[in-house]
């Protein structure tokens, strides 16, 4: 499997515990860079001051560190641009009761 | 996209201490209320057993839980860490001891309530200091800051007038008109501190729990200005002993609350989460109940007597303040315990979602029991029916035990 696909698959195991939806389908991942066994993630959360900030961000880091051959994972959080519902996948919308 | 790694979380033991203490005290308050039935049915609310029940419920439960919730919510909602967690723990033990001794004094020897009252006041003053120092550090202040800061000012006024009342009992002298002090104490406590706090944090929690985006926060300014003016006008009506000014104050408070309900409905129209969690639905139901009770207070400000207004105040405490707190607690407690147990495991192994931390059907049954009991107690007081009071208050006592059990059972997951 392509390393990028493997990383995304691993990211899909990290759920927002309030919504029960993974961080990829929620559209929280803004940027993903992989080079020489190092991963860089730029992500956001659905709202600044999310009480689950540390849990979700830490979960992303821990999930990626479990991939074989990964040396270092760096996760940054940004509020600019802020998250909008348009970033969610159809699967996320379905889980929220839209279809 | 500039990274801004900022996270603000409090040691969860601090809010949990307040909340568990509050849940246990709530059960005690309801049991004491059961014993005060005969007096309450006859409209005698100014009796030792009623004072004890009221202060156990309002201070022991609602105030302690509100303080605990603030230790958790202020850092995340205002992106500002708590000034001193060590002070938070000291403040908990001082306030809990003061509250317990103060409530016991009211029941057995009201004149001796001054010294435990001072201990309680010390605990609350330390809390006010903690919050003032924390909010001072907030980088970008917003309308929520204004609501919460004004709520804290109301809390300060509540304890100042409460202390005045206790001093009157202790000294046998009056530093000001006793009834004026009592009415002001109730106004700033029941209609100032709690509603402003709940409204302020609702502006954070409603969008968060409903996943609402793209709404305007502009109506919040009008809610704030109208509500605070309503409080001030009502206070002036007590000073003037004017029925017309009292009605104007009640009218402004009703308009402010109607604006708040309208604003919340605008937020909910923009929600992405179509099916809202049941405990959150009950917190929303409490908002609707409060609007009806503000309407009732407005009508009674023209045609009612003190007894009817006392019943509305009691219903307001149960149907709005208590129900809001209970609804939000069913969301906050699982979150706190989840953070403690599973926060470091997410990403490494499968962890439960927050919803799986508490049986939602069971919380629904409990909230329904609370609403039916609260309505029963209100009707019993209104029609002076002692049998109905005992049945409804018995059900409320059962609820309080189930509630305390449910909160404590989450901590075993």
UniProtKB/TrEMBL annotation, chain A:
<dbReference type="Pfam" id="PF01883">
    <property type="entry name" value="FeS_assembly_P"/>
</dbReference>
<dbReference type="InterPro" id="IPR002744">
    <property type="entry name" value="MIP18-like"/>
</dbReference>
<dbReference type="InterPro" id="IPR052339">
    <property type="entry name" value="Fe-S_Maturation_MIP18"/>
</dbReference>
<protein>
    <recommendedName>
        <fullName>MIP18 family-like domain-containing protein</fullName>
    </recommendedName>
</protein>
<feature type="domain" description="MIP18 family-like">
    <location>
        <begin position="6"/>
        <end position="77"/>
    </location>
</feature>
<dbReference type="GO" id="GO:0046872">
    <property type="term" value="F:metal ion binding"/>
</dbReference>
<dbReference type="InterPro" id="IPR034904">
    <property type="entry name" value="FSCA_dom_sf"/>
</dbReference>
<dbReference type="InterPro" id="IPR006121">
    <property type="entry name" value="HMA_dom"/>
</dbReference>
């Amino acid at each position: 499997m392509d390393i990028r696909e493997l990383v995304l698959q691993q990211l899909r195991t990290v759920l927002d515990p309030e919504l029960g939806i993974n961080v990829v389908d929620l559209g929280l991942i803004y940027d993903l860079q992989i080079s020489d066994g190092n991963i860089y993630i730029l992500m956001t959360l659905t709202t600044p001051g999310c009480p689950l900030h540390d849990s979700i961000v830490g979960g992303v880091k821990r999930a990626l560190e479990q991939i074989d051959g990964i040396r270092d994972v760096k996760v940054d959080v940004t509020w600019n641009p802020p998250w909008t519902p348009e970033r969610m996948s159809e699967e996320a919308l379905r889980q929220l009761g839209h279809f | 996209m500039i990274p801004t790694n900022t996270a603000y979380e409090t040691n969860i033991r601090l809010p949990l201490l307040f909340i568990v203490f509050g849940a246990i005290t709530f059960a005690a308050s309801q049991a004491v209320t059961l014993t005060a039935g005969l007096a309450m049915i006859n409209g005698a609310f100014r009796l030792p057993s009623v004072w004890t029940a009221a202060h156990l419920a309002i201070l022991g439960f609602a105030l302690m839980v509100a303080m605990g919730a603030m230790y958790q919510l202020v850092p995340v909602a205002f992106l500002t860490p708590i000034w001193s967690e060590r002070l938070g723990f000291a403040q908990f033990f001082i306030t809990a001891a003061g509250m317990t001794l103060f409530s016991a004094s009211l029941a057995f020897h009201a004149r001796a309530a001054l010294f435990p009252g001072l201990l309680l006041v010390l605990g609350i003053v330390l809390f006010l200091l903690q919050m003032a120092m924390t909010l001072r550090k907030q980088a970008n202040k917003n309308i929520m800051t204004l609501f919460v800061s004004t709520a804290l000012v109301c809390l300060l006024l509540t304890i100042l007038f409460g202390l005045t009342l206790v001093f009157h009992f202790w000294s046998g002298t009056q530093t000001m008109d006793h009834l004026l002090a009592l009415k002001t104490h109730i106004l700033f406590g029941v209609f100032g501190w709690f509603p402003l706090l709940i409204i302020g944090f609702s502006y954070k929690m409603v969008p968060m729990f409903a996943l609402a985006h793209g709404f305007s926060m502009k109506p919040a300014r009008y809610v704030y200005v109208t509500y605070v003016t309503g409080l001030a006008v009502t206070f002036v009506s007590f000073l003037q002993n004017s029925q017309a000014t009292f009605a104007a104050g009640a009218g402004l408070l009703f308009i402010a609350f109607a604006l708040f309900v309208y604003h919340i409905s605008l937020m909910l129209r923009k929600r992405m989460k179509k099916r809202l969690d049941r405990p959150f639905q009950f917190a929303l139901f409490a908002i609707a109940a409060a609007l009806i009770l503000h309407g009732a207070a407005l009508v009674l400000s023209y045609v009612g007597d003190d007894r009817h207004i006392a019943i509305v105040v009691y219903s307001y405490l149960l149907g709005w303040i208590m129900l809001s707190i209970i609804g939000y607690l069913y969301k906050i407690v699982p979150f706190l315990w989840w953070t403690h147990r599973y926060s470091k495991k997410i990403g490494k192994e499968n962890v439960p979602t927050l919803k799986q931390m508490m049986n939602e059907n069971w919380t629904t049954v409990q909230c329904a029991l609370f609403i039916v009991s609260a309505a029963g107690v209100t009707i019993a007081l209104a029609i002076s029916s002692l049998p109905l009071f005992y049945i409804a208050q018995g059900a409320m006592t059962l609820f309080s035990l189930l509630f305390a059990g449910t909160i404590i059972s989450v901590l075993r997951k």
